[in-house]
Write a structure and sequence with these properties.
Helices cover 2% and strands 54% of the residues. By secondary structure, it is mainly β. It is built from four helices and 48 strands. The strands form eight sheets. The protein has a 29-stranded mixed β-sheet that branches. The protein has a five-stranded mixed β-sheet with strand order 1-6-7-4-5. It has a three-stranded antiparallel β-sheet with strand order 11-15-14, with no helix packed on it. The radius of gyration is 28 Å and the shape is globular.
Amino acid sequence: MIRRSCLLGGASFAALSLFASAADAQQALPTINVGGARAAPRPGPVGRPTGGAGRVTTATPTPGTGSGTGTGAADRYAEPKPAPFSRTLPANIPAVVESRTRAQILRSTNIMTSADAFRYMPSIWVRERYIGDRNAIVSTRTSGTIQSALTLVYADTILLSNLLGNSFNFPPRWGMVSPEEISRIDVMYGPFSALYPGNSIGAVLTMTTRMPDNFEIHASGTAAVQPFSLYSRKELNLGGVTNVLIGDRINDFRYWVGYEHLDNQGQTQTFPGNILVPQPLQGNPPAPRNDPRFFGGHVDFNQEGVPRVITGAAGADYVQTDMAKVKVSYDVAPLVRAKYQIGFWSLNNDTSVESFIRDKNGMPIYNTQSGRIQLGPFFVTPGGVNPSHGAASHVMQGLELRQDTGGVFDYDLSASSYNFVRDFSNGAQSYGPRVNAAGTAYNFDPRGLNANNGGTYWRTGDARAIWRVPYDLLGKHEVSFGAHGDVYSLNTLQTSTVSWPNNYYLGIQAFNTGKTETKGVYVQEVWKPLPDWKFTAGGRGEWWRAFNGMNSTGGLNVTSQFSPGLVSLGPAPAAVTYFPDSYKGAFSPKAALEYQFTPEFKLRGSIARAYRFPTVSELFQALRGPSSQLINNPNLQPENCTCYDLTGEYRTVDAFRGAIGLFNPRISLFMDDRWNAIVSQSAINGAGIIVTQNANMDKVRFRGVEAVTDMKDILIPGLDFNGGVTFTDAKIQTNLSSGDFTGARYLLANGNVNPLSATVPSALYGGRQFPRVPRIRFRGVVTYTPNPDMSFALGARYSSPAFVTFANTDFNHNNYGSVDSEILVFDMKARYRLEPHWWLSVGVNNIGRWKAYVNPNPYPQRTFFIALNYHFGGPEDVVTVDRGGSGGTSAVR
């Protein structure tokens, strides 16, 4: 149902406007760099323009502080020395790192959730199916769209990644961070730093938030409108998000208090259907019987080219979330800060359904008694058209003590907890009147199926230190060392409820519990024996165990499906399985060598070993619903990877005789050899049930090239481009030890099994493409800032289609179904300062209304945005021009 309150809520924040003294600009304090300084660059020309209005200099340029300068000019685009506590990702990371400042994000991106901030980062794709999608996981250049445990997401030092599992059901907790909090983002590609565990095989994403220096108020409201149509479903979906953030500094004490409300109607997510099975021929001469008792549906072809009928629309998710957060910090000593934060996030969501099938009485058919009906000359099994209701309340806490002097010794001690206070999803088991095969009688199954994750939690603790050796020992040295510990606890109770959406249960269908625990230590040294050489070496030792694993199944079964009235129920015997504890240890060495060939060009080679241990859900969670089944695997082994990266980066200013102010291209060659890869395969079986299971795959190889460039002041001041293209060849090398994966044997019109869809023996997967990793990805955005009060942006995103089955039999990619389709999306945004404190922005995502799908949900079609922001104090309450490579900022009152 369309909620007009969504649109109204997007602008309701205007009454929150308050007035107070403006905030002072942050001071950037110096830090100590590793290594000797390079020779000063040659003096550049005098009087060269460096940007738009208000950005022209006639002074002789001074040497920059960044990495490399152009011919005859200082690097005026270089990132300034970071202020204390302004970075989450440490310096001297021996891997590719891409960064964006808040100003760059606001200029280029239509942003409603914190996940949107990463939209144009190279090789990164966030699987956000609609605004407020709680299952928005991250895909990277070597991980697919359902491998959530191969990426780490942090907000400051708090781990947001949900490492309870490894699928679309375990996304980072994006809702715990408001876009208003973000001051910068960073992405580290690959597991090349010993500071992070093996879950960094894909990438490490960090969001840095700041603490206020003076009294500040920030309020924003954004509204979105998305027309959507697919098959016969036509929708006009409205959404909105409002946010208010208040903070101040009182001597050494700082605080933020924030609240965010999101309200959005998402588009339909699933279109249930099934294979068309022909009826036996009848009569003389034999001919198909055209049964008139049922009609409707939409006939097309599935991903394997088999005819099917779409019987309904489901999963149109109406989402309401609220997030309240308090952050406080106290400077216990100069450049030593203690910080505590607590966040509360709540969710209410309802999914609606529509049936495309009617019987001769005009009754919509959502489910049937026998499972199969006659639709024209075919047998069809409708089902899966069931609504649901869910709610959640989560609490996150973090405590940190950090010294950030940039001097000889710094440390960071942090601990965090994340609790599922309440978390359930209650779906109807068999919604609507259930017709018999003859279309003459109906019965009802009012039950619901409730999956409750209340009591699930995780805890993390980290101790990190950096010793910058103050004397020369055959060069400069920086030694990082630390320890890590975490525990993840699963508690899932699945019950059959009296009547949907009531949560009072008749019986327990399944009960899953278990825990995993990891302890680790690391050390890493950066050594610069000569000014142009840098060598990094380190190692990480980890000890992992899984314990207290248990599955219990039972509950109630339908014993009489054909009687009128309510279905009859009978008890199912309980079956309890206790799993033995498991212990694993691993050592992950890392190394990198970097050489600065010229002031403009540097080359770095990195190699790393990494281990990703199984998650508690992969080991112990087994659930079954009306339209899906999840199979656990307690015998999973850790997947391990040997990863390689060779990166060359060139950086120069006033390139091509001054036509481009900054020209900063990068090319990276990467390869990952992965053994015992933990993979998940979902397939629709002959009954229309989506079956998902996990297993180890012998060996997979990812290799490719990533080309990225950052250009500023292209031909005219203020015209910038940042983007990149990635080519990846993801291949299954061998798979001799795993059993066959679940698959569906679809029938052709003549009743024979389609040879393309027959289950392929897993030993024959070798040489086939690894699922869900596209061969080609492109991300790019052009921004134009003619003056500090106005900006325009045009972005593009492309991903080639990818197989979703290990057998690679799904060739029909660009159609609804279990696919990762081709994506070609263009976005735009315009932003204008109305008054000193007010900003207005408008934008469109997916201008061309490209229809794209992911496993099997449709992505949003053309979406319109309008936002109004109010800032009193802070960096946005000034005339700000960001021309730095990663965030140089000048402020003018």
